[in-house]
Amino acid sequence: MAKVFNVDSSFDYGMLAGASCAFGVFDGVHKGHCFLINQAKQTAAENGGISVALTFDIDPDERFHADRLKKLMTNERRIAALSQTGVDAVVVLPFTPEFSAQSPEGFLKTTFADSVPYALHVGCDFHFGARAAGGVGDLRAWADKRGAKICAHDLKSADGKPITATRIRLLLADGKCEEALALLGHPYSFEGTVTKGRGEGTDMGFSTANIELPGMMQTLGEGVYAAWATVDGVRYKAAMSMGVAPTFADATATCEVHILDFSGEIYGDVIEVEPVHFLRPMMKFDSLDALIATVMDNISWVRENLREETC
Ligand SMILES: Cc1cc2nc3c(=O)[nH]c(=O)nc-3n(C[C@H](O)[C@H](O)[C@H](O)COP(=O)(O)O)c2cc1C
Ligand SMILES: Nc1ncnc2c1ncn2[C@@H]1O[C@H](COP(=O)(O)OP(=O)(O)OP(=O)(O)O)[C@@H](O)[C@H]1O
């Protein structure tokens, strides 16, 4: 696992001299991002320098479009995932208002100080600096003066379209877990703290762990899903609903997870939920009996059909 370096007053910019850096936000650490990072590993091997995933502490869109941002990973998980890509180091720049307001040249000066990387890998659509004014041309102008190499790659595609975080978010919003997973190259999951619900699930014969997710992490579309739930390191089959239960006027939880073959008090615990298959839309039921019968059917489906290899 690569060491993570936060760029603060103690950061040694010298580590970027001669390094091969892949630069971006990398939400999801998807197959396209991994392709870019592998390119950085290759040029690092070429000159004997280190490979670096160069990223930001927050997703810039948290600063500019927090109201409509839907993320694939929290910042902590994104940085942890980057550290497991086989790079030598992850360097995390603080995306402060001052940092984001810089011109493209100022942005590069703040990022590298006087160090010159060996190679800088970006996608051909990469933009940076205030109002995203900087592009690959600005990178090349900066690099040419310093003897660095800019590698602007065509975006890795699947089914004729670039793999992007935006594309994967839209698939998840549409409940298309399998297609999202194919582009991510690893499971999609989120974590949340179990909160107290209305306490009615147990009376209905299926207890549920209620999870409140911040708006930014409500990326998965409303519906009922087959999922895996990890509690205290143990992985269970689960049937989950996403979206406020429309049958109940007082319902608040965004995500409710029935964990099969599990009983235990987990209020306040953080659990990981990995939705893998859309079962049906959320429904407003006319009677409790109808709701119970449908949810029991969903639970049976999960018990009979969910297999490790479907994740
Ligand atoms: C697999 C599953 C499917 C669900 N489907 C629906 C649904 O279609 N409509 C609905 O109103 N509630 C649905 N719910 C939410 C239940 O109504 C809710 O879990 C139950 O009311 C218990 O809520 P409580 O834990 O807050 O007491 C579903 C829950 C689960 C676990
Ligand atoms: N499919 C891809 N192939 C190669 N490089 C990519 C691909 N997608 C993104 N990149 C590059 O990876 C870096 C990180 O990109 P970024 O975090 O903006 O990801 P993204 O998937 O394009 O996200 P979004 O859809 O939110 O714009 C950038 O240099 C970007 O150009």
TrEMBL record:
Gene3D superfamilies: HUPs, Riboflavin kinase-like
Matching SUPFAM superfamilies: Nucleotidylyl transferase, Riboflavin kinase-like
InterPro entries named in the record: Cyt_trans-like, FAD_synthase, Riboflavin_kinase, Riboflavin_kinase_bac, Riboflavin_kinase_bac/euk, Riboflavin_kinase_dom_sf, Rossmann-like_a/b/a_fold
Listed GO MF terms: ATP binding; FMN adenylyltransferase activity; riboflavin kinase activity
Domain of life: Bacteria
GO biological process entries: FAD biosynthetic process; FMN biosynthetic process; riboflavin biosynthetic process
Pfam families: FAD_syn, Flavokinase
Keywords: ATP-binding, FAD, Flavoprotein, FMN, Kinase, Multifunctional enzyme, Nucleotide-binding, Nucleotidyltransferase, Transferase
SMART domains named in the record: Flavokinase
Phosphoprotein found in the keyword field: no
Protein's UniProt keywords contain Nucleotidyltransferase: yes
Catalytic function, reaction form: riboflavin + ATP = FMN + ADP + H(+); FMN + ATP + H(+) = FAD + diphosphate
Domain Riboflavin kinase intervals: 183-307
Coiled coil: none
Pathway: Cofactor biosynthesis; FAD biosynthesis; FAD from FMN: step 1/1; Cofactor biosynthesis; FMN biosynthesis; FMN from riboflavin (ATP route): step 1/1
This enzyme's EC code(s): 2.7.1.26, 2.7.7.2
Homology family: Belongs to the ribF family.
PANTHER family: RIBOFLAVIN KINASE (PTHR22749:SF6), RIBOFLAVIN KINASE/FMN ADENYLYLTRANSFERASE (PTHR22749)
Protein name: Riboflavin biosynthesis protein
